[in-house]
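Section: Multi-chain targets

For targets with more than one molecule, the full set of components is provided together so that the structure can be written out for the assembly as a whole rather than chain by chain. Components appear in the order listed by the source. The example entry contains two components.
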Amino acid sequence: MSKVKVAAFSISLDGFGAGPGQELKNPLGVRGLELHSWLFPTETFQKMTGKSGGSVGIDNDFAAQSFENIGAWILGRNMFGPIRGPWQDDSWKGWWGDNPPFHKPVFVLTHHPRPALTMQGGTTFYFVTDGPVVALERAREAAKDKEVRIGGGVSVLRQYLTSNLIDEMHLAISPVLLGEGEHLFNGLDLHKLGFVPYTTVPGDGVLHVIIRRT
Amino acid sequence: MSKVKVAAFSISLDGFGAGPGQELKNPLGVRGLELHSWLFPTETFQKMTGKSGGSVGIDNDFAAQSFENIGAWILGRNMFGPIRGPWQDDSWKGWWGDNPPFHKPVFVLTHHPRPALTMQGGTTFYFVTDGPVVALERAREAAKDKEVRIGGGVSVLRQYLTSNLIDEMHLAISPVLLGEGEHLFNGLDLHKLGFVPYTTVPGDGVLHVIIRRT
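Its structure, encoded as tokens over all components, is:
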């Protein structure tokens, strides 16, 4: 069965995965962008945004690996867009333009039905209204022998964590103190959930940590 | 005025500074010792326990620096010993034997008065029943032009943090998931308290982070 993983997920030193006050102009919340400072200069990210160049090295290795061997994605509604409540129309097609960086089926968790949306480059967004377990079943089916990556956000990760459905997490701990926002682990007992640290690798100004369920 | 700092304070990846269930046989709580795995092999720690040898390098540098230029210490009652409530007698003299590793005045926060206790090697324990602010005044006076180090534990650190009385913290983030215990930052907003990351330095299997109040 497909491994389910979280990869290249950035959190602050004080454990926040997004800042407070997420909105259209601030999709990661106040100061949320700072969490990803390690990612933006990498060759992988530069390529994603249609540019050339960018840094190679440990941070880029982790960024690149986060896209390898992925057969399907799961995203929360708020990672797909800023719209809350029912879809007003079908004009919002994600933050990423016509050719999103997924290039695979993407299952978007939402309470509001919407037809599937096929983009350029192999990305199709499927809107799943039957909850995270059904979304994972569909993602596993779509991924075949590859892995399912749960892209986030924080509340989606927490749902899958508490349901014991995540096998591995690669976290990038950024030298940032957010103070408030969406905390990834508060109230969760990762030890009881079976996670142990697998490896820690210092990058350029970020600490890469992989934890796995035993 | 003396700088007030926390140094070589170990926390888990999920933010705990001690495990649950602290008691005589388990002064750091269940699995709390794992937080300090980076410290034990260092030359500094080996010397503290009367041994020779030990590792040198980044971890040892941080361990050694944590004792430099300190004029006085503050400890919580539970760091001094496992006894709760009134002192039964004066037989408990700390976890550290006749010659504790402080070699300076140590102000122990407690609700229960007890005469000062002079140990070998320059350590005197003063038991302060007038609260953390008074303890800090006394520690500053004793430290003269040197720094005051707040040794812990977690609840003492949180009290001083919320009172805006800590200038700098050196945290050692250990590759351990405790899942439960005493969380250092839960509910505190380090950003609002004025802290910013000053430096992060990877050690041998631990990440050293210094945060400072601006």
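The first strand of chain B starts at residue 4 and ends at 12.
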